[in-house]
Structure formats: structure tokens, C-alpha cells
Amino acid sequence: MPHNPVDRRAVLGLGLLACAAPLTSSAAQLTGAGMVWRANQSAWPTATDLRASYVYFTADEAAFVEAACARIVPADATGPSAVEAGVPLFLDRQLAGDYGKGARWYMQGPFGKNTGTQGYQSQYPPAGLYRVAIKAIGDHLSRDNGAPFHKRPAAEQDAFLKDLSAGKVDLGADADGKAYFTLLLQNVMEGYFSDPIYGGNRDLSAWKMIGFSGARYDQRPYVLAYGKPYPLPPVGIGGRPAWSVKG
Amino acid sequence: MATKLPSVDAVLVGFGWTGAIMAQELTEAGLNVVAIERGDWRDTPTDFSPAYAQDELRYYWRHELFQRLNHDTLTIRNRTNQTALPMRQLGSFLLGSGVGGAGVHWNGQVWRFLPSDLKARSHNLDRYGKAAIPAEMTIQDYPVSYDDLEPHYDKFEYLCGVSGKAGNLKGVIQPGGDPFEGPRQREYPNPPLDMPYAPTLFGKAAAELGRHPFPHPAANASRAYTNPLGVQLGPCTYCGFCEKYACGNYSKATAQTTILPVLMRRKTFTLRTNCEVTKINLSADGKTATGVTYLDETGQEIEQPAEMVILSAYILHNVRLLLLSGIGKPYDPATGEGVVGRNYAYQITSSVNVFFDDKILNPFVGAGALGTMINDFNGDNFDHSGLGFIGGGYVGLMQTGARPIETHPVPTGTPSWGADWKTAIARDYLKTTTVSTHGAVMAHRGNYLDLDPTYRDALGRPLLRMTFDFTDNEHRMSDYLTDRASEIASAMGGREIKANPRKGSWDVVPYQTTHNTGGAIMGDDPKTSFTNKYLQSWDVPNLFVLGATAFPQQSGYNPTGTVAALTYYAADAIKSRYLKASHQPLVQT
């Protein structure tokens, strides 16, 4: 197991989350009160618990998602694959939470057909769309008497994902294959490049690959350093692996 | 039965930039003011501390600072013969929520409109003749001139501590500034931000092509600054998380960092958060606003009577509240009559990526309005004869911070995933930059706002419906800007460029800009405008509507500078004339 770079802040973050709630949920009338500031009510992010296994994905879903991640960002000498960077676990935790439920999205019906410029119009929030789309992909592939996606050779997997992205795979009435691929690709990019506190970009590996400096607060020394390599390693909200105590 | 509160001098609906400016001005004049905001109280140390503000997933992709669409969204379509569907997730524009509004997550791009932008119809008729303006293009002159607004632009720039270089001081062109801008009475309050490598490469290439590059005016403080209210901003640290984020460093001007520390101490000012206004109440004859009705967080209905009602929410909410309250004649695109919802407009953008082999650009070092720009092709700064469009936009290279989920461009022919994609981003991320264009959208008869017949919000009220598409004028203009941007991009000396023109109908998915305008526009004629030049309703003279709601059409510039200037202009008229004239119309019809 790699060292978890987020332990310190994770503990802090989870501990403070409960007290943060009253600040953002209470109606307030403020008259002559000055700027409202309450100690220890800072809105820390909630860190992902990396220790547990999947909480949203079924075994079949996990097999598909891991295989698809391995094709979207494959393993090679350039840098981490999406699987190595922890993206499947990131996806699982995102889908299990508010994002997966579409908690901030408008999900009231009726559900109409997108003219092409009206964006996401699935009746399912992200978690639901993964569920029906992966099931439909499995059914689609088994109808041809073929192997499931994760057991196919890489070239076949690539060809299938390309067809999916181009809207050439009919997944039935419940799931739009192209809309699903668009969502999956977006979510993989989110997991690969987001702060490691959310479970992907493990050990800041994707940021190291491209050279992104991360959650840095003061970049003033580097504005006028034209053409010079950036001298510092990336850092996340929870710090970086070198800050963790080994052992 | 609603609980009825004691009356106040003025009630403000919504508490972002315009609400804070107006509340500050009116309380300074001695008025008792209540602002009602449906979102949360938000401030730097608790909500966007520098310890965790640099979080791309949380703040941009999971929309933490933005409007919750599960509560309230709008429906969208390109044309009246389509069925509008709800905007189920945010994309093209990022609506704000809570104290400070969308002004919390803006970039800090502070522009003045050109003098000719404010005379869009008469100026273009004079220069290019009747044929230049198609019958369906419903552009109008603003009822105010650049000279009317100049002191108010200045006031906002000094409030924010804008970092920039004047290009025109009292009519004298200044080296290093924007020679196309209208005359300004004095220099910006702060010098330009330090310019990183990529924008200097753009500036050099643009100058070699005969253009006139200058530093973008930025509400990101280039040095420690104390504004005229005594509120302090700290020097920007170029962390690269402005646009779509909140500043953890008190460097980006927002209501919180420029006005609220003073306003919130006033005994004559009350802010109620987590309270949502549902209706503007009218007298029996419909000619006077008597106050507003709102729901507090527990769902209790409360009536707040007031001598003046001021709409200071985002433009889409202002228009919807007018429609829901039955104020003003709704616009009908079939007849071209009606004023509420009329002349909705937006912005058209495009970009050109430049890929270098030999130059490390560190694109993640950035600030919201950090960049080198040209206005050679904005407004009517160039001869449009024979081009087939009017209007224009700026072209520039802005280094706002290359957050990697959003920003990892790849060259033409590279797939968007897989081994080749990975090779390309690992090679190019540090050595790629982007020239952007930002163009005007003229008003069009078919582009408008009304209430949706089908979809409702969490309170059961009809959603706003937006019918909008780019017209030939916008596409020709934007293609022209993209070509000019490509010329400069090519001259920057990179390995290759990739142009990303805006094609086809307006699409709600890709982020473009949060520059929605119009819907209750200002004008000289009550038949074609909702307010007079002081943002005062023609029909209900104690009702004022602030914001880009008033724009007859959108220019090539970001709206906030003009939104703020119009707010100060209206506040000035309210204080100096309206309050002394027993709440009468400030313009007679």
C-alpha cells in the first residue's frame, strides 16, 4: 500500500464537518454585526476513505469500470494509468455520494429528447446512469455471444469504447451510450487530475506526470521566471507523501 | 397568512455586487435598508480559506459555490419551435448563489464599454447605413452615454483597486495602455500585475502584426491596497484559482473584500440570508410596489413592506421575479411587443491553442484577469465595411491558471483518451497556452426570456425559459476574431496551433461565459424598454432593476464594470433626485 498522503487533513476534515453544518444552514438576520466569523467552522473538504473496498459498484460494474479506465488512461512508461492512479475507487466514492445522486442537479421530469444542445437529459443521475449503462453494455456484448468487456483484448476494448463515444452502440431505451461515455470520460479525467484527497491522482502521480504544481498558495516567485522549470514538487490539500511519517 | 414586518426605506432582492453597492450608497444617504438573499452567508476564512481554496473538483466540477439547480434552474432551447428542456446541470454559464453572488467566483475582468457600444444602433446606422442592421436585429442605444458613466466606472475601479495601465487619459493616448478605450479621468489605482511568459509572447507577436497590446485591467490586486471605504486588499499571489473559485487571499475584489466590512457594521443595514423572495407586491392600482414577500428557511411566509423595491439578483432571477409578480408586459417574439424578457443576449467565444516544443510556460501560475489583450477588433474599432457583421470583441492571452481537469489541450488529430492522448498531455501541458476571443452578441427578435409552461422549481413556481441562439452576425464576427487570433498565435513561434472556433447553435454544455444580459432593458421608450436611464421601472416608479438585466445587447466586453457603473449611476439619481422628488418618475413620458 502506498502511504496515504491525506491522513492528517482527513482526520481534521471529518472532525470539523459536523460543526460546519450550522453555519451554512441557519437563516440569519445580521444588523450592524460586522463580518460574521465563527472560530473552527471552516468548510474543510471531506477526505475519501481509501481503506474500504467498493461501496457503490457491484462486482460486474467494478470489472467494467476498471477495464475501461485501463483503456482511457493506459499503463505505460509515461506515467500512471487511471487504475494505478486510483480512479476506479474515486468513481465509486463519487457515485456513492451526493454527486452520484445528482443532489445538486435538476432531476424533475418530464424527460425529453435532447435536441443536441440541451445537455444532460437522462432520467438517471450519474450513479443510476452508470448502473443501467453498464448493464446494457453487458447485455449488448453477450447478445453477440462475445466475452464481457473486461475479458476482451485491449484492441477490441478500444474499438468498442470508440463506437460507444460515437453513438454507434445502441444500449436500448434506458441508456444513451454516447451520453454515458461522455460522463465516464469526464469522471475519469476528474479522478485522474483532481486533488488526491478524493481518492484518485494517487500520490500526486498524474500531476507529477504533466508538471502541475498542485494546491500551491503563493506562486509569486515564478511569474517572471520565463522558461525556467518549476522547482517544487506538486502538493495536495492534504500535503504530499514526503510529509507522511514512514512506517 | 404572512407575517408582516415593519416597513423600511428600501428592500433589496439579492445580495451580490449590485446589492452591496446599492446598499452601501443608500445607507450612506441615511436610508434604512434590508437585503434579502436566498443563499448562505459566505466569507473568506470560513468558506474559501487559502488552505483548501485550490480545489478544482470541489469548487468547479462539483459546483460548490454555484446555484443548486435542484432548487431552481431554467429551461433552454435554441428556437421557439423546439420544446425547452431543463438545464439539469450547469455548463455554459455558472450561476452564483449566496452572499457576493456570482461576483465571488468571477475572474476580476474589469472593462469599460466603448463610447460607441453604448450607441450600438445609431452609431452603426450612421457609419454603415440601414443595410448593416437586419430587421430581426433588435439592438437599441443605451439611454446613457460614456460620459454619463465615466465617473461611475472610475468609482468602481477605485473600489476594487483595479490593476492596469490607462490608454487614454483625458483624451491623450498613453503608451502601454489600450489606445481604443474611452477617455478616463485618471490612471488605474494600481499598476498592472506582473506578466508571465506566455502573455508576453502574445504581446510581442501582436505588436509585430501592428496590433496594440496592453495588460488586462484586473480586479486582482497587484499590491496591497486600501480602497476609498478603508477596506484593504492583499497582493495577489498568482495561485491560479480565480475564475470559478473564490479567492482565499483577499486579493480579488468581491463584495466581501471591498464593501461588506463597512456595510455590515451599519445599524441601518440588515441582511437576511437563506430567505427567498417569491413576489414583488403591488398596490391595488399596480403603480406602486409595496414591498416583497419571502419565505424564510423554515418555509414561513413573511412580508417586508418598503418604500422602494430594488431587484439586485442575477439577471435571470430579476426577469423571472418580474414575470412571476405580473409586472410589465411580457415580451412576445411573434409580435415583437412587450418588454419583460426582451433582448436577451449573451457572449460568443472561441480560442486558439499554441503548442511549443522549446518553451516552458508554467501555465498553472496565474490570476483571473492576468493577460495581454488587444482591442483592435472590438466594437467598432475597425472598419466593418464588407464584412457582413457589426460588433466585435477582444482577443488576448490570459493566464488564469491551467487547472488540469479543465485545461489539458491536445493538438489537432490527437484523440481525447488513450495512449496517444496521454503521451500528448505529458509532453505538452507545460508548453501549451491559449489565445482567446470574446465577442459581442447583438439582440435578436427571437432571443428572449419567458416562463416555462411545463417545468417548475422546488417551490412549485414556473421556471424561466430561455430561447437563444447565435445568429449569422455572431458567427461571422466570431470567425473573424478567431482568424485574427490565429494570425497572432501563428506568429508566436510555436510548433503548431489549433483553432477552436464556435460552430453551430448555442450549446448549454461547454462552459462559455456567465455573461447573460437583457430581459428588462433600459431605454428611452416605455414600449421597447422596461426601465428608464436610471434603471427605474416605467410602470412602477418605486421599483428599480439593477444588473446586466438592463443591457439592450451585449458588447464585446465582460459586463461587470458596466453593471457596477450603471448601479452607481442609478444610486446617484436616487440619492440626488428621486428621494427629494417624492418618489416620482425620474424621466417623464
Number of helices of chain B: 12
State the low-pLDDT regions of chain B, or none. none
**Major sheet of chain B: size, sense and barrel closure?**
8 strands, mixed
Percentage of residues assigned to helices of chain B: 10-25%
Largest interface: A-B, 81 and 93 residues
Strand content of chain A: under 5%
Note the gap between the termini of chain B: 38 Å
User: Rough shape of chain A?
Assistant: globular
Percent of residues in helices of chain A comes to: 40-55%
Largest beta-sheet details of chain A:
none
Oligomer: heterodimer
User: In terms of structural class, how would the helical and strand content of chain A be classed?
Assistant: mainly alpha
Task: Give the strand tally of chain A.
Answer: 1
Cα-to-Cα separation, first versus last residue of chain A: 11 Å
Count of alpha/pi helices of chain A:
8
The H/E string of chain A reads HEHHHHHHH
Radius of gyration of chain A: 21 Å
Mean pLDDT score of chain B = 97
pLDDT < 50 runs, ≥5 residues of chain A: 1-26
Any idea what the shape of chain B is?
globular
On the 0 to 100 scale, the average pLDDT of chain A is 87
Description of the molecule:
The complex is a heterodimer of chains A (247) and B (589). Chain A has 247 residues and is mostly helical. In chain A, 40% of the residues lie in helices and 1% in strands. Chain A contains eight helices and one strand, in the order αβααααααα. Chain A has helices spanning 7-25, 59-72, 87-96, 98-101, 126-143, 154-165, 177-193, 205-210; one strand at residues 29-31. In chain A, helix 3 packs across helix 7 (177-193) and helix 5 (126-143) packs across helix 7. The termini of chain A are close together. Residues 1-26 of chain A have low confidence and may be disordered. By secondary structure, chain B is α/β, with parallel strands linked by helices. Chain B is built from twelve helices and 24 strands. Chain B has helices spanning 17-28, 44-47, 56-61, 120-128, 146-160, 197-208, 255-258, 260-263, 315-325, 419-428, 472-491, 560-578; strands at 3-4, 8-13, 33-36, 74-77, 85-86, 168-169, 172-173, 214-215, 225-226, 232-233, 269-272, 276-282, 289-295, 301-311, 342-345, 348-355, 371-374, 393-398, 432-439, 448-456, 462-467, 496-500, 517-519, 543-545. In chain B, strands 1, 2, 3, 11, 12, 13, 14 and 24 form an eight-stranded mixed sheet that branches. In chain B, a hairpin with a 5-residue loop joins strand 20 and strand 21. In chain B, helix 1 (17-28) runs parallel beside helix 12 and helix 5 (146-160) packs across helix 12. In chain B, 62% of the residues are buried. Strand 1 of chain A pairs antiparallel with strand 11 of chain B.
